[in-house]
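Q: Sequence in, structure out?
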Amino acid sequence: MNLKEQLMVALKAARDICDKVDQEKRDFNADERQKVTGYLTEAGKLKAAIKLAEGDADLKKQILDLGAGVSLNDAPAAKQAAGRPGKGKTLGERFVESNEFKSWMKTIAPSGQIPDGARGLMSPPVEFKDLITGLDDTSAGAFVNPDYTGIYEPLGRRPLTVMDLVNRRPTTSDIVEFVRQTKQVTEAAPTSEANIKVYTGATGEIEGLKPQGATYFEKVWEAVKTIAVWVAATKRALSDAAQIRGIIDNELRDDLAEKLEDQVLAGDGVGENFLGIANYPGVLGQGFLGTTALATCRRAVTNIQVFGLATPTAWVFNPTDWEAIETAQDLVNGYYGGGPFGNVIPRLWGYPVVQCAGWAAGRAILADWRKVIVWDRERASIQVSDSHADFFVRNIIAILAEMRAAFGIIRPQAVWLVDLA
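A: Exactly. Output:
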């Protein structure tokens, strides 16, 4: 079995495993991942060996062709390069046009044609002052080969910091239901013991009646919504560049995750959009105090404890707003915080700070993030099909990424939006 046949066997084995995983709509298991990695490593080595062998064959052919069948009267390339000796010519052209080669040819082939029976021929060495084969002195021509590094550098995406704060729970239904208390028991009071069986209201009588408490609840429903995206790709493209499939899959999953965070933060509830934190009913707000953002944020801490009856777990700031907070200075130009050389975890009034580029500047979020929940109905999955439009007859496939989730805040007053200006 030659090198090319071995390469095809390795690639087919890897592709068979990928096809099986796609058909079963799942990720690789550990054994499959190890096998595919091994096949791809072997294929890479075989391809490199094939290129090396092909290069050796080309070198041999060039050496044999330099002298065989050459007529000294036939040099069209020399005519084309007239006026620029040595420039714009291949190494072989410059070799056959050299004085050393011409003198040697006159010795072994006075007629200009090497005899068919000639054997053991060896030309004299030919010296070249430069190896410039392009049209100018800065060109390396045919001797420059691209260095294919295999490096792939994506555009990048913002860190999804908020999704590390929210509470993630699974669900098996398309509707999520929870019960929220709307009034708590507040009627407790000190009570004296009764001093009479039948209370008439007469002076000195103590009824001893204990106050009755009351509490109310409401049912809340949150619908599971679908977030999806797809791209088209030709079967040939996926076959010729195996890493493309992995790149596409990762891009689609990352796009879903980014869109989910956007919906959690600022979904407007229209159509299939979530009702995000910025628009969720019952979420409270802290207006700017008219002094400083720092004082406003401190008031928000007080209010979430007093009126929200909650203990916050973290702040969320747009990076621009957090920069303004961190660079705030006193009257003698000293930084309120740790300054440019402070090596501490970002905190404000005792609570951790998370920066999120997906949250609009101008407001911060202070919340007990345990009350903010994403219910996962179906985690991000990848499906492949050629059933879209005329994709089947055009050898095009659609790669679809999809996830289903619901979002809700079980205690809205535990989330405060804080104006920073």
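Residues 180-219 form one domain.
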